[in-house]
Amino acid sequence: MTDPYGIIDLSTLKQPAGSEESGSSTPAQHEVAVTEQGLEQIIADSQRIPTLLLVTSARVPDGESFLAALRSAVDAKGGAVRLATVDADAQQRVAAALRVQQLPTLLLLLLGQVQPIVQSVLPAEEISALLDQVVQVARQQGMELPEGAGEQAPPEEPLPELIAQAYAAIDQGDLEGAQSAFSKHLTENPADAEAKAGLATVSLMQRTQGQDLNGAREQAAQHPENLDAQLLVADLDMLGGHVDDAFARLLDLLRGADAETKDTVRARLLDLFEVAGPNDPRVAPARKRLANLLF
Fold this sequence. Notes:
295 residues; alpha/beta; 5-stranded mixed sheet; 5 strands; 50% helix; globular
């Protein structure tokens, strides 16, 4: 891969206007949508996994088929490569910081730096070879990637209908529709962990929709006794990927709290535990501390 534009410095977006550093919102297994708030976490993740950055738009001819081909090729790498997508219409500051001049633009994010790859739709038959090269370059840089990366991943089971409807609603910005679909699925399948996490994440997105992180932090700092202000900052931290900060803020509220406050904080923590997922290593210590503080 050549680099005709030089390495792009993303430091201008590590603290975007109107927001503090924050991480990624609830990503898929091998794909994540890029926002200003989530960019820092994606940069950090590139220290351990090479990431293809696709900057595109619904206006791009053949854009959907290009994205589908990239998704298929990335999935076939079994977690050795990640795909990050930037909606140039919705995330104009991100696209500008990436020096995007035409759509689609495909870039490589590796070890915190961005290198342009191509400014056009790649033929589907070239994408697999490109990802092989990405994996090779990453290993040459000393990155430890999954063994057997590049082997064809087994076909995934189709999603249950209501789960698929919920994800489609999220993609369309219909959070109420997503909430309804997840809730209906859980009525029939109350132990479904994916649906529980999805419902908790949608609730988190609804609570934080339209909220300003800087303003919320200032309000919480000026009014430490304001429980709603503290809960909002914890939610925004969680949405931004600062999971430890979100847990710690809520757990600290339990010291000397009255019964009503404890119930409220406990309920919010349990919601955020669902968002993080039971396999997140930060959940178990937080659960233990919660139990110690409550009992």
